[in-house]
Amino acid sequence: MARTMAEKVWAEHVVRRAEGEPDLLYIDLHLVHEVTSPQAFEGLRLANRPVRRPDLTIATEDHNVPTENILAPIADPVSRTQIDTLRKNCSDFGVRLHPMGDIDQGIVHVVGPQLGLTQPGMTVVCGDSHTSTHGAFGALAFGIGTSQVEHVLATQTLPMTPFKTMAVTVNGSLNEGVTAKDIILAVIARIGTGGGQGYVIEYRGEAIRELSMEARMTVCNMSIEAGARAGMIAPDDTTFAYIKGRPHAPQGADWDAAVAHWQSLGTDDGAAYDHEVVIDAADLSPFVTWGTNPGQGVALDGAVPAPEDFASPAQRASTEKALAYMGLQAGTPMRDIRVDTVFLGSCTNGRIEDLRAAAEVIKGRKVADDVRMLVVPGSMRVKEQAADEGLDAVFRAAGAEWREAGCSMCLGMNPDQLKPGERSASTSNRNFEGRQGKGGRTHLVSPLVAAATAVRGTLSSPADL
Amino acid sequence: MEKFTVHTGRAVPLRYSNVDTDQIIPAVYLKRVSRTGFEDGLFAAWRANDPEFVLNKPEFEGGTVLIAGSDFGTGSSREHAVWALQDYGFKAVLAPRYADIFRGNSLKGGLLTVVLDEQVIERLWDMVEADPATEVTVDLERREVRAPGIAESFELDDYTRWRLREGLDDIALTLRHTEEIDAFEARRASWSPVTQ
Ligand code: SF4
Predict the structure, then answer these.
(1) Residues of B with CB below 8 A from A43's CB?
(2) Is residue A254 part of a domain?
(3) Do the Cβ atoms of A21 and B77 come within 8 Å?
(4) Lower CB count within 10 Å: N or C terminus of chain B?
(5) Which H or E run contains B141?
(6) How does strand B112-115 pair with strand B135-139?
(7) CATH number for A208
(8) What residues contact residue A277 under an 8 Å CB cut-off, 6+ apart?
(9) What is the mean pLDDT of residues A91-102?
(10) What is the residue range of A28's domain?
(11) Is the CB of A347 under 6 A from ligand 1?
(12) Domains of chain B
């Protein structure tokens, strides 16, 4: 029978199937960070259980880490406790950890792929919803809660009921200046923040095939913002070229065996999805959000909508609430919105290509007066690579702040936060109320829009410069 | 985990849809390393800034059943959202739809999240707002929610229901199948990556 990629990967990982029970699914890779793991390790200790497969587990410090003076003790005692707890847990249970200052430290979803640990056909989990990022490789990767983290640590498996499948096909090629971020923001605006609920979304079509590996990660990363459990893209030569030669990539005869297997994973012709969405790449343009959920987005050429623009009373109410929180007037052209802060980083857009794209725009220009721009590489390796290419100098010369790797202002668990009422253009993935700091207002944008916005001080695309 | 059979309690009407986990418990409360004591973080921003917020109204104090709008629990996977609701005293949530991860977390942790039709939720909201002393019963035995004039059945798969009723921990259940896990591991491809 013709099967989808998600169904194939699922089937390959079923340890046990019994009538009336969820499938017991084997987990190939478990990523761990300091925020969602302490209670899981505490649970293991209380029950006197070991980590079953420390060799399929890897930890990094990301959410709480300061992006300045990383070798000094963390000032916030609570953040420090979380980091110290992770260090103790990893050492007690034999889990490999990349702490601050380590060259392989960084945001958990940047680190896995970079090390070559994320590979096609795997099951990957992490106590973090943006685990969907790893689906860009054709892995089935999804976020889990802390008790599931404990479950995977103890058993290397998870009881799960199968997801439904959705195909999002993006036909044709993207126009100049339109990026992976614009694709996914448009998809979310189209299907809504609940539209993907219960589904694994498989992204397909010419525009997706033409994306680089890093851009594919951007797309899959925000599957969760559409409500989906996971996003996937069929592995192809772009995928294999990215993995080859990385520290944990298969080698020699193993490589050939692995590639042969990976090539069999794509969705079979004629396989049926539970739901299908088709988008024409030619219709896409730079996309930005105006509201307080990622589905509240509009083309940069557009204007802030009015509550009356929406049919359902619930949407009208949430629009009204969002406009009040965001301090925006309906009808204001998006390009007239002035920002205080530009944040370039996160697991959505903190990889080397994102920094290159933004640097290209900002090169030889200046960040506008009254705008602060924070550039936070997704990992220490990204930071090092950027420095080798001279990108740090480009950002510094423009007046941007060049920081150490971590989640940073994506969620403001470290000192990088918006002040109440401050407005940001941010390449991250969530524009929820207070996400980037209490009272902060967030517009989600692509790295290109972020860079152009930093220069003009109002939401802009490179074409406006 | 506490067993869940039948629960009766007063209800709290939360007339918002799309309540994300950042609202249920803001990130700053995630810095703790303990498993309990998250009640102060529950809806912290709304409780601090909005005197009209439902949990600030004395008549809804002590409610144990939260009645929320659609897409409750969207956003991050933080299980702290479930702990915060439980630590505050909630035993069950009623809503037309939930975010998947939140729903999974809640059912694992013993917080019963019930899906009810939007119209039923509306009726419950109206009823509870009119009389905050109204008692709502969430009956897992019969898979039914009851309130004066309302008896609505809900769906929940047999397996989850059994687990909740027995108060069973998933890990202990899985460890019964260790031999099958061993056998699976023996068949994994030799080139599957390891971290060490
Ligand atoms: S960068 Fe943001 S979204 Fe990504 S893992 Fe960190 S906090 Fe989560």
Answers:
(1) 35, 171
(2) no
(3) no
(4) C
(5) none
(6) unpaired
(7) 3.40.1060.10
(8) A166, A167, A168, A169, A187, A190, A191
(9) 97
(10) 5-160
(11) yes
(12) 6-186 (3.20.19.10)
